[in-house]
Design brief:
- The chain has helices at residues 2-17, 40-49, 60-72, and strands at residues 24-27, 31-38, 53-54, 80-87, 95-98, 140-144, 154-158, 163-168.
- The chain is α+β, with helices and mostly antiparallel strands.
- It has a single domain (21-168), classed as Roll (Mannose-Binding Protein A, Chain A), CATH 3.10.100.10.
- Strands 1, 2, 3, 4, 5, 6, 7 and 8 form an eight-stranded mixed sheet that branches.
- A hairpin with a 7-residue loop joins strand 4 (80-87) and strand 5 (95-98).
- It starts with a helix and ends with a strand.
């Protein structure tokens, strides 16, 4: 009985003493939101510094879970980096991948302009709301848009743009 109590006490102390790093807000148990704006690679490195990775949305359940946490924490009016990257070098076929695993995006949540009749294809750079077109050789990363105008759907964004970001903590 004493052994069980000691394990319980250590577990409770560890859980209660865990504190998110400065500039991060907990989004449920699985995500942390950075209130600091960084470019994509800096955001990826910041997540990795704490043993995390940029968030992924590999299926509708993950998209809905993340959306619920964003809305519950009232941060739905900004755009965020998540872990998608457009791989466009000459040695590999151009495609969207999750940077952490190298897996192709099999599930997508692209934003399509309301006037567009085209549906986005994961092998091409999707329609973006950016005022200037992006050159095909630029670094393109995955931005999760705000929920006010874009319902949290994705667009391609230059990786050098500074945005808030969401890390997956588990």
């Amino acid at each position: 009985m004493l052994k069980i109590f000691c394990v319980f006490a250590i577990t409770v102390t560890t859980v209660l003493s865990f504190k998110l790093p400065e500039h991060f807000l907990a989004l449920g148990q699985d995500y942390a939101f950075s209130v600091v704006r960084l470019n994509f690679l800096q955001a990826y490195a910041a997540c990795k510094r704490y043993g995390w990775t940029l968030a992924t949305e590999k299926n509708e359940l993950q998209t809905n879970t993340l959306a619920e946490e964003i809305k519950a924490n009232k941060i739905q009016s900004v755009a965020y980096w998540i872990g998608g990257f457009y791989q466009s070098d000459q040695e590999f076929l151009p495609r969207w991948i999750w940077l952490e695993t190298g897996e192709s995006l099999n599930y997508t949540n692209w934003y399509v302009e309301p006037t567009s009749t085209l549906s986005p294809d994961i092998t091409t750079i999707p329609v973006t709301t950016s005022p200037t077109p992006k050159p095909p050789d630029s670094n393109i990363c995955l931005k999760k848009n705000d929920f006010v105008n874009h319902n949290g759907e994705w667009t391609a964004e230059n990786c050098g743009t500074e945005l808030e970001f969401i890390c997956e903590t588990s």
